Each structure stands twice: as structure tokens, then as C-alpha cells.
Amino acid sequence: MDISKYIDYTLLAPTSTERSIIDLCHTAIKNGYYSVCVSSSYVPLAKQLLEKSGIKICSVIGFPLGAMATSAKVYEAKQAINDGADEIEMVMNLGYLKSKNYVSVLKDISDVKLAIGNKTLKVILEVSELNKNEIIKACEIILDANADFIKTSSGFSKSGATLTVVKIIKKTVKFGIKICASGGISDYETAKKYIDIGVSRITASSGFKIKQPV
Amino acid sequence: MKPINQYIDHTLLKSTASINDIGKHCEEARHHRFFSVCVNGCNVSLAKELLLHSSVKVCSVVGFPFGSTSTSAKVEETKHALKNGADEIDMVINLGFLKSKKYDEVVNDIKSVKNCMPDKALKVIIETCYLDKEEITMATQLAIKGGADFVKTSTGLGTGGATLDDVKLIKSVCSEDVKIKASGGIRDYETALEYLNLGVDRLGTSSGVAILKSVAVHSSY
């Protein structure tokens, strides 16, 4: 199967240069990936590079800690959309979740969703920081907030997606929301395993081996 | 030299910090009379409320820890933190722009934030662990050009924290009126003292309480 259309091709290291963003966009065009995912300060450059390519631009927000004030996340999201982003990936507020302040977790997400209208919102759980009950609770809140995707990981924490965690998420949300698996998925076979259990999008970074082994 | 507690920004920036963690943190700061607490944007109003009627200031990070958020988002985050009671701002420079040699954009990023807070202290984090000597010199110059009140070494979440050599280098570039904040990996009294002896004006650390305990041990000799 062709998995290129499942791939968000991602470069978020804080030291990424313009040159590396140009390379990212060129590889995305060459391989026909679904999108590139970049920091909000690189959205205008990506927009310029991907004009008329059909490849979408995804901007991270409140990244990677998710501990910005809600209004700052809202503003960063709006600005990214104005600069040309098609999708927003925000990190949920983990401190609020740990404090069982669920109203504030929900408001943080739904305020961003309201601000970006019909653009796609992915919410990063950062599963490496959560236990099973927290993952289930977070999924329920994200469903309530009308986000479009649950994404497992920022890629900058202790660890990324696991098949076990994705199965827990899938069991919780059923078909209510799409799932994006991220963190440490580096080749076709691994990506395929996630797609087989119902994942709709895969985060991949430089060096991802797109080819199906023969 | 002031008492050592007055140099310390008591820092809690873990993304999973709960209301209880912030409560405990602010109580420690009040008890030990640290200069400030340094927290994430979402915790500024809580910290301010907990530290009312104390001398402890509240410091908010901005664009943290990557510095790669858009300039206008950093500005908005700063305005919001100030409105919620932040006394100081610690922002991260745009490291990608620095590495791309887009120096005007690095300065503009800093200047735009400083413009929101002419009378308050702006600390600019250059994240030395990702920079070579030339880049540290350049980043320090750009921070000063952007209006930084402090040049700060590290987020504490990069691959390394402050080093004495890096602080000496920053010091050699800074004029008298620009201060230095050393942060990242300062966990005991001896290390803290080494930085203060170099002329550092502020220490960012989550080990303030441990540092003060070892001061007590030293003074009992």
C-alpha cells in the first residue's frame, strides 16, 4: 500500500534552519506526503515553498510543553492560520489534567478550536507523561471539545506512541475522532502496524523509510 | 553581595506541574524569600495570587522552551502574562533564525517583546548548549540590540545548562548595564557561588531550597 498520504512530515527541532525547512518541503513534494509539520515561526516560509503543491501545512502550538496560557495558544493558532497553516497541532495542558481541573483542559482546547473555524485541530496528549486512566479521561475531554484528531506525542518527551496506547485510545474514542500516531515511527513496517489498528495519520521525520520492503 | 536567596529565580517549568505543585513551590519561595518564582504562562495568575503581600516576584517564560513560536505569538503571550501579574519575562530567542543568520529577525523578535514591557525586566534565553562560541557572542549582541535587560544562558530543557566558560564569554560581550542570568544545572551552593563570583546577577534553579540548606552547613563551620 502507498502510505505517503498518511504522513505528516515533521521538523520541529528548535535549531532548524531555513535550509532544513526547504529540504523538508522538497522531500514532502517529491514523496507526495500529506503535510509538513513545522513551528509557527516557519509557517510563512513553508507556505511560500508549498504553493500549488497540494501539500498541507501543519503548525504546532504551545509546543512542546502545552503550558502556555490558553489565550496565548489561541493567538498563536490564529496567527498560524493567517500565515497559511491548514492544520493546528496543540499540546494539551498537562498540569491542568494532573490537577483534575477538567473544565480548564476542555476550555484550552475548545477555545483554540473555535478560533480556527473549519481548519483541522489535532490535540497532543503526550502519553509518556500519563497513566491509563489519565489517557482515557483526556480522550473523553478532547472528544467533547470537538477536535479532529488525537495525537499521541510531541516527539520531545521520554517516549512516543506505542501500539498498546493507541489501542487504549481507539477503544475509548471508537470512530468519534481520528488518531495520529507520533514519536519514533521511522519506517514503513512500523507505520503500517499503526494504520492496521485504525490510525489515520503518522508523524514521520527526516530519515523515514517510506518504501515497502520487497 | 546580597544574601544568596535574593539572587534566585525559584523555577518550576515541568509541563505536568499541578496546582498543588505550584502551591508548594510558591510557599517555598515565600518562606525562603527568593527573588522570584519562574513559572509557565498558564500558572502566572495562580502564582501571583499565592504570592500577594510578599516580596517574591513572578516571572513568566515566553516561547518556551524552543523559542520557535511566531513573533506575534510571543508578543501576545507576553501581554497576557503581564496582565495576569508577571513582573518579569524570560523569553527564548528564535534559534532557527539565529542558525540561519537571519539576525534582523532575531532582533525584531526580541524588540517586539521588549516594546510591550519597557519598564519591566526582560531576560533573553540564548540556549548556549546549542551554540558554538561565535554564535554565543552573536546571540548576546543581538539580545542586547533587542533591548534585553538580562542575557540568560539556558532553558534547563536543552542538552546542557550554564557553564563557567560560556558565562565568561557572555560577560565579555555585555556592557555594564546588561545583566546575566545563569541557569541549568545549578544545584548546589558551591556552583551557585562560582557564578556569583563571576558577576552573574541572577540564578535560575529548581534547587534553591537545597542551595540554602548547604549555605547553612557552610556558615556553621
Name the average pLDDT of chain B: 96
Q: Classify the beta-strand content of chain B into a percent band.
A: 15-25%
Task: Sum up the overall morphology of chain A in one term.
Answer: globular
Number of helices of chain B: 9
- Strand order of the biggest β-sheet of chain A: 1-2-3-4-5-6-7-8
Class by helix and strand content of chain B?
Answer: alpha/beta
Summary tags:
heterodimer, A: 214 residues, alpha/beta, eight-stranded parallel β-barrel, 8 helices, B: alpha/beta, 8 strands
Give structural notes.
- The complex is a heterodimer of chains A (214) and B (221).
- With 214 residues, chain A is of the alpha/beta class.
- Chain A has 8 helices and 8 strands, in the order E-H-E-H-E-H-E-H-H-E-H-E-H-E-H-E.
- In chain A, strands 1-2-3-4-5-6-7-8 form an 8-stranded parallel beta barrel, surrounded by 6 helices.
- In chain A, helix 7 (163-173) links the parallel strand 6 (149-151) and strand 7 (178-181).
- In chain A, helix 3 (70-82) runs parallel beside helix 5 (102-116), helix 5 crosses helix 6 and helix 6 (132-144) crosses helix 7.
- The longest helix of chain A has 15 residues, at 102-116.
- Chain A is globular, with a radius of gyration of 16 Å.
- The relative contact order of chain A is 0.15.
- In chain B, strands 1-2-3-4-5-6-7-8 form an 8-stranded parallel beta barrel, surrounded by 7 helices.
- In chain B, helix 7 links the parallel strand 6 (150-152) and strand 7 (179-183).
- Chain B contains 9 helices and 8 strands.
- Chain B has helices at residues 19-32, 44-50, 71-83, 95-99, 103-114, 133-146, 164-173, 189-197, 208-219; strands at residues 8-12, 36-39, 57-62, 88-92, 121-125, 150-152, 179-183, 202-205.
- In chain B, helix 5 packs across helix 6 (133-146).
- The longest helix of chain B has 14 residues, at 19-32.
- Chain B is globular.
- Chain B has 221 residues and is of the alpha/beta class.
